[in-house]
Amino acid sequence: MQTQAKRHNSGAHERTVRASISFPEEQYHVLERIAAENKVSLAWVVRDAIDGYLKSKWPLFPQGTDAEDAQQRSERA
């Protein structure tokens, strides 16, 4: 897999990893349609869907929250 640093609007760099994923043909066509309707790339649609999936699985301590900071401080104490 290939790792790259990407710059976001905030100017911060985030490392990304390139992956090759295969979809059933019908799912691929639906993803293409969603991308076209929203004027975004198919990759953006897939990343957005994965982001939503991950947030639904681990909602307790999202990154960068005060709760996470407090947990880390208590673990160090």
From TrEMBL:
Domain Ribbon-helix-helix protein CopG, chain residue ranges per copy: 20-55
InterPro entries: CopG (IPR002145), Ribbon_hlx_hlx (IPR010985)
Pfam families noted in UniProt: RHH_1 (PF01402)
Protein's name according to its UniProt entry: Ribbon-helix-helix domain-containing protein
